[in-house]
């Protein structure tokens, strides 16, 4: 893990073959069972006869939203529909306005690395003091750090790392003593 002074922002950094969506979805479901309200989206996909179709599931409602556009049978490359992504983001923004303990963003993808996509949700969460976790592919981690101005915790793509970050964020880290204030970074060291 990498630490800094603003540890309420976490990047769940993943390599090819790792499944950050499963990790984030299971974490969000577990938080809900513990009485916390996570809002946001995790990526999901469905295999259809014409290939994989990109979709996202809203973690606060369970609603599945398609994010793909049909570019025809000869099209190659990204099928992400930016309009559908922004629609999903608008639903997340409304959910945040109703109260949230955590924002989950499915990816720091190409749209976000180019300054578009769901970056506005990150700004909204930071303005409202809502912690956030975002899945970041390892090849885009440097772009993420540039965007975040270094103010992010780097987590490996596993549930234990996410749980340790969350526990430290809520003062339940192993080094906390009653009556003392311990920063998140101190608790994680």
Task: Summarize this structure briefly.
Helices cover 35% and strands 22% of the residues.
Q: What characteristics describe this protein?
A:
single chain; 189 residues; alpha/beta; Rossmann fold; seven-stranded mixed sheet; globular; disordered N terminus; disordered C terminus
Task: Show the helix and strand layout.
Elements: E1 9-14, H1 20-33, E2 38-48, E3 51-58, E4 64-66, H2 82-97, E5 102-105, H3 110-113, H4 119-127, E6 132-137, H5 141-148, E7 153-156, H6 159-169, H7 184-188
Parallel strand pairs: 1-6, 1-7, 2-5, 5-6
Antiparallel strand pairs: 2-3, 3-4
CATH architectural type: 3-Layer(aba) Sandwich
Order of helices and strands: EHEEEHEHHEHEHH
| Rg measurement, Å | 17 Å
The proportion of residues forming helix, as a percent range, comes to 25-40%
* Sheet having the most strands: 7 strands, mixed
Give me the side-by-side strand order of the main sheet: 4-3-2-5-6-1-7
Distance between the termini: 9 Å
- At the fourth level of CATH, the homologous superfamily is P-loop containing nucleotide triphosphate hydrolases
Look at the helices and sheets and give the structural class.
alpha/beta
Strand content: 15-25%
